[in-house]
Amino acid sequence: MADVILPSVAARPLEIIRAAALAPTYQNALDVTGDALRRLADLSRAEVSHG
Q1: Rounded to whole angstroms, what are the CA distances from 18 to 22, 36, 47?
Q2: N or C terminus of the chain with fewer C-beta within 10 Å?
Q3: Contact call for residues 31 and 4 (beta carbons, < 8 A)
Q4: What is the dihedral of CA 20, 31, 26, 15, to 10 degrees?
Q5: Could you read off the pLDDT of 5-14 as tens digits, one per residue?
Q6: pTM for the structure as a whole
Q7: HSE on the CB side for 37, CA within 13 Å?
């Protein structure tokens, strides 16, 4: 996965989809998608704990 650039969660959803679509393997695409979902979950948890 070192050759795949992971967009930040703050990135637009289309950038995350593009990164997954352009990943060299399906495993890399799953890594990109999973990382984005983990970051989104962390962001949601942080919002809940502050709000």
Answers
A1: 6, 12, 27
A2: C
A3: yes
A4: 0
A5: 666 656 677 8
A6: 0.66
A7: 7
